[in-house]
Amino acid sequence: MTIVAAFPLMTRYLAVLGFATTLLTAAPAVADARDDARRQVQFGIEVAGRGLWREAIYRWERAIEIDPSYAEAFNNLGVAYEHEGDLEKARQAYEKAVKLAPSDASIRQNYELFKEVNDRAPTPARQ
Asked: Is 2 domain-assigned?
C-alpha cells in the first residue's frame, strides 16, 4: 500500500494546499506583469510624442506580449500602425482593443474615426 492510498484525505489536503500556494504566488506575478506592460505603454507614449513611432510600436508590441489583455496597448498600436500607413495592422489592433474594452469610449472613438477615414478611401483593390 502506498502513502497516497493510506492517507487519501492527506493527499487531497496537499493538493489543495499546493493549488492555493500556486495562486498566492501567481497573483503578484500577474500584477508585476501588468505594471511592466504599463511602463512599456507609457514609454511608448513618450517616444511617439517625439516622433519615434517605430520605437513606440516596439514598446506597445512588447506590452501586449507581457499582457495580451491590455486594450490600451492595442489601441495605441492601432494609432501607430495607422500613422505608419499599415492600415491592415491598424484595423486588427483597433478591433482587438474594442473587443477587450467594448465600453471604453476613447478606444471606440479611435476605431470609429479610423473606419470613417479608411473605409471610404479608395484602395488599389477597390479602384
From this structure: no
Q: Are 63 and 73 in contact (CB under 8 A)?
A: yes
CA 64/CA 13 separation, integer angstroms: 37
Annotate the chain with three-state secondary structure.
CCHHHHCHHHHHHHHHHHHHHHHHHHHHHHHHHHHHHHHHHHHHHHHHHCCCHHHHHHHHHHHHHHCCCCHHHHHHHHHHHHHHCCHHHHHHHHHHHHHHCCCCHHHHHHHHHHHHHHCCCCCCCCC
Which domain range does residue 71 map to?
11-118
> For the chain, which residues score pLDDT lower than 70?
1-31, 121-127
Residue 70: give its domain's CATH number: 1.25.40.10
Please tell me the predicted confidence (pLDDT) of residue 117.
92
